[in-house]
Amino acid sequence: MSSSAVPNPDDGAVPPPSLPSASPVDSAEPAVLSKNAKKRLLREERWSSNASERREKRKQKKAEQKVRRRALLEQGLIQPQRKKMRKSDIVNHNITVVIDCDFEDLMPLNKDFKSLARQIERCYSANRRSEHHLKLVVTSLGDRLTRTLEQKVPRYKQWDFQSTDYFSHYSAQKEKLVYLTADTPDEIQTLEDDHIYVIGGIVDKNRYKGLTYRRALEKGVKVAQLPIGQHMKLTQRKVLTVNHVFEILSRFIETNDWKTAFTDVIPKRKLKSNDSSAQSGDGDEDGEEDEDEDEESDEHHDSEVEAHEEENTKR
Ligand SMILES: C[S@@+](CC[C@H](N)C(=O)[O-])C[C@H]1O[C@@H](n2cnc3c(N)ncnc32)[C@H](O)[C@@H]1O
């Protein structure tokens, strides 16, 4: 812009363009404005005259989002939104959750690796969103999972991951290890400080029943299942996906209440109708871990989480 085109507030001819009275249309004096300044004024005028239209559009979009969100909530496809977190609200717990990925040979399909990668990502994302942080570690990270993560989740490099197996990694704390598995009758009562809870990082549609149970026993590691049967009845066997198990632990740490944790995390379609209350799990069908359905619902979950996280970063 040339110096003659700069509006000079002292000569009274052209007030600053950001003030409403600055409009050359309103001014008694002929306006001395550069082309760019005029364009800017026009843009500003157009912007202010469209304000109510924009407000309406925003309102409508919000209302539509609300309806969509309520429908997803009702179907149990997403979790209720939690309040925005401040750093000072975060509690770092001295409880470790390990995702043991030592099962590459038992997962022939690429899609199972993609599924596992997505599930682990969801664990990290749930931990990040929670005010109660658990120490989350991936062990036995092998070549195929690494390749999948490189392609699908490049930010995995920020995670805590090890190529060594969990047992060697925590050999000095063996008595603190608890392998979580649906195949033992023993139920976990609480999450103990200083302990290390291991989740089998495998997507097997329950092809390998009792796999983690046997492997843990071979190593003399304690085993426990989640106390689901005490609080609710499922339509099928109580084998959950890796992320659901982690999210339950995370929610339990937040609320100190298993029932709330199960209700918030386990998809409603897995609950027996009219029964979400205490019952032993003996009557559970020996069904499959329905990861395909989970994946489908996860698509919604992903976009919701992304939208939510994006919204938070904008703020
Ligand atoms: C998809 S399951 C794998 C099932 C596999 N057949 C096995 O032998 O564990 C993924 C992991 O989630 C954990 N898990 C699933 N359901 C559980 C439950 N009801 N109680 C405790 N852990 C569970 C176990 O660590 C399991 O290895």
From TrEMBL:
Reactions the enzyme catalyzes: guanosine(9) in tRNA + S-adenosyl-L-methionine = N(1)-methylguanosine(9) in tRNA + S-adenosyl-L-homocysteine + H(+)
GO CC list: nucleus
Record bears the keyword Nuclease: no
Region (Disordered): 1-68, 269-315
Composition bias type Acidic residues, residue spans: 282-297
Active-site feature positions: 204 (proton acceptor)
EC number: 2.1.1.221
GO biological process terms, semicolon-separated: tRNA N1-guanine methylation
Comp. bias intervals (Basic and acidic residues): 42-55, 298-315
GO MF term set: tRNA (guanosine(9)-N1)-methyltransferase activity; tRNA binding
Key words of the record: Methyltransferase, S-adenosyl-L-methionine, Transferase
Class of this enzyme: transferase
Limits of the SAM-dependent MTase TRM10-type domain: 81-273
CDD domains, A to Z: SPOUT_Trm10-like
Family matches, as InterPro entries: MT_TRM10-typ (IPR028564), MT_TRM10-typ_sf (IPR038459), TRM10/TRM10A (IPR016653), tRNA_m1G_MeTrfase_euk (IPR007356)
Protein name: tRNA (guanine(9)-N1)-methyltransferase
Native organism: Gonapodya prolifera (strain JEL478)
